[in-house]
Structures are given as structure tokens and as C-alpha cells.
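---------- Forwarded message ----------

FYI, see the Cyclin-D1-binding protein 1-like N-terminal domain-containing protein record below. Original note from H. follows.
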Amino acid sequence: MAITKSLEASTESLLTLISRSRTLLSSELQSAPKPTTDNPLDILHDIGSLTRAYTTKLSIAIRPPNIIQDAAARCVQDITQFIIPPLLAAVEMVSPVVYGITLRTAIIRAADNVLTALEEFAKEIPEICREGKSGGGRDRLASTGVVWQAADELIALRTKGLLGVVRDTTKLHMDMLKDASTELKEWLEESVDDEDGGPEGEGEGEGEEEDEGAFWDAPKKGLAKGDVESRTKVEVSLKKINLVTILLRAVTKRRLMGAGKLADVKRLDRIAELGKCVANLGDDVGMGYYEGDTDEAAGAQKKFEGKATELAELAIYADDGTEDSFSKWFRDCRVALSKND
């Protein structure tokens, strides 16, 4: 079956608009300077729901063998008119001052995911009409599901808000730090095993044989036999990483949910930023040891402790700036982070 000119033109117009819109999003779309009483999260929620509805109708219209191209063309035109422009307008309404940089970043990412999913689906329309199936390796229903998932992520942001997004990212960074701690602990234990009688260089040759060019799979340098000083430093680093993991869990439970949850936009944004910093620096600490560069590890450790201390300080006070039942724990954590052992 040949594709109609109407459907072909509508699809090309949609793809062009999506491409331009994604370029705008990637270039840090500026928030609207004019104040508005409209809640952009409500609008984004509605756009996500409409995206699901229009995509469902489009998927039905191009279902082989009974493809209804006129109906498909109308669906594509509706997406072009009622989804893409309002989506960009809603993103522009999200002021980082009012809604937070973290939430705005999450909204831009979710909006781009919706555009990407719609773009991939739209690219398959001509092939489905001509051949009765997609040539892209996945079927029509799978593509519909991808759009639905992206739309659902956009819809969920209204319920999450800034607090929910910061909570999700903090949990993610906590998991990253747990992984860094586990890897460093295993590396230290392997070094002890080697010292107790394991063949020198064991594992190194295996790693090279498996993949000499893979950076992440490259063999890690073990501690030199009898290097008590370096082993002590690694153990101290492990303690601090584990402590900060506990700190992130406490921040999540005491300042991002429950009675002590925060509402201040700047503090929430800073918590998200510091969570990301300590997760990345935790990896840097381990990498310094793995590469046999104790100076690099020490430098990363100092930065790591500084950011973690700032995070503990940020969590001491309740939302109104006064102390509450959780303040003492965060203050004690800050003191523990400043100790050298």
C-alpha cells in the first residue's frame, strides 16, 4: 500500500517540528520572564495524558492490514498542533527560582524523552503503510509502549514535584555510593588474599586476556605487600564512604519525607547537587587507589569529605531554620566526617 500525500506530508512536518524542538530543549530553553498563575506541572500532566491518547489512536489507525491513513494523518496533525507547541510552552513556564533547578532539569529530560519516543514512532509510519510493518526492528505496539512510558514519566512529575525528584536522585546517588564502597572493599580484600599467598599478578593477566582495550575492565593495581600505611588509608576511606551512605539515607528519610521534610527550593536543589558530588567523588577515591595513585585518592578524599560535611550541615536545621529532633544526629555526623580516622 502506498502512503497518501496527506499522511506523508503530516509526518514530515511532525518530524521537522520535533527536531527543532529537541534542539531548543538541548540548548537550555529559557524560562518565561512573565509571571503566570498557571501551574506548568498541571499542563505537563495534561500533555502527557493527551500524548498517550493520540498515540493510541494513531497506533490503531496504522494497524495492518486495515490501515486507515486519513485517520492516521489527523492523529499526526493533532500531535503536531496540540502536543509539541504546548509542551515547549509549559517547559518555558518552569522557573528554576520557583520550581527548582533540579525539577526543571527533570522536566526538560522528560520532555525530551517524549519527543524522542514520538520521533521514533513517526519515522516508522511510512514503512508501516508501505510494507505493513516497521523496518526498524520493533513492532508498532512496542513503539506505542515506548511513547506511553515517556508520557507516564512526564505525568508523574506533578505528583513528585521538586521534593520527589530530589528524593529519587538522592536515592540513586546513595546506591552509586554503595556500589563504590562494595567495589573498594572487595579490592582491599583481594589485596589481602594476594598478600596471604595468592600468586602475584593473579587476575591481571585474566583481565588483559578478556579485554585489553576496556577501560572499566582493566585490572586494578593491588596494594604492595606490607604497605600498612596505604591499607590504613583505604580503610579510613571505606569508613567515610559508608558513613556518607548512611548520611544520604538519613537525609532521604528525615529531610525529604516525613515530619522533617524540607520545602525550601534552594536547600533542596543544593541537596541534589551535593548528593551527586559525593557519589562521583566516592568513585574518584576508589579510582585513585585502583591506579596506585594515593595522592589522587587523597585529593578526592578531601573533596569528598568537604562536600559530605556541607551536606550534613545543610540537613541540621528544619525547614523553618530551627532545630528539631533530627538536628543532633546530623551535627554528630558532621563532626564524625571531620575526624581523620
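H. also flagged this: The CA atoms of residues 194 and 202 lie 8 Å apart.
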